[in-house]
Amino acid sequence: NQYGGQDYSVVKYDKNGNELWNKEYGGSLDDIMYKVIPKANSFLLVGISFSSNNGNKSSTLSCINPFPSALINNSRAIWIVEIDFTGAIINQTQLCTDFAFGKTYNNPDIEQITDFKQLSNGQYILCGNFVSYMGPMGPNWSLGNFIGYMRLDNSYNFISAFPLMAGAGNYIAGTGQIVSYVQVWNGYAGQVVEMPNNDLMFSYTVEGMYNQIHCGDNSANVFAYAQTQLIDQSDNWLGTQSYGSHFGYAWAKNLTLYN
To answer: What ranges make up the beta strands (E) of the chain?
Structure first.
């Protein structure tokens, strides 16, 4: 890498497979690219940046680091770089996620970007996994993670954010002798598609453990099930559908709209 840590890397080839140019984008720390979005006259490089304003990164927005330095030293930010067909930077935008979801979710950092799409109205949807610091728990650090999305305008400015699934905590589902609970420890964001009426359908995977306690007999089953959520244009929740059970695995991989 050219600038230190990991960098965004883009290589252009001609139709015969000959390399035309090879360029990198980033700062002195890790810059991890997840998506390349083709546009009419440019490309969008979408990823997560740990770097400050150095290398060829010039986004100056400073994000809050909600974690103790013993756990994570640097805050993570969404970094969107637009390049032309020669690889030259047209513009770049850094987005913090701490203000997007706020104190309700302990000012979370972005952990992984899983989808980034432009909608028919010109807005962009970024879907991903977010992680926050929940406080010390015994000898270990306690982290909470959740799936969510951010809505951006056509200049990549923040409009709104919406959490889809919280991934930390115990959910009590029984009383009496049998006490059952589901402990969800991971949520993996999948994809988003725009419906014909402009509603948004999200797919993702929920992973956790199902415990059942009956007269001192404690049994546990690790599970993963697929889930979809439907959200309207104003970020209102319309419905949720789960696929699978607490006793097996069902992973959400691809979400495709069939006309």
So the answer is: 8-13, 19-25, 31-38, 43-49, 77-83, 89-95, 109-118, 124-137, 140-152, 158-166, 170-172, 178-194, 200-214, 217-231, 237-243
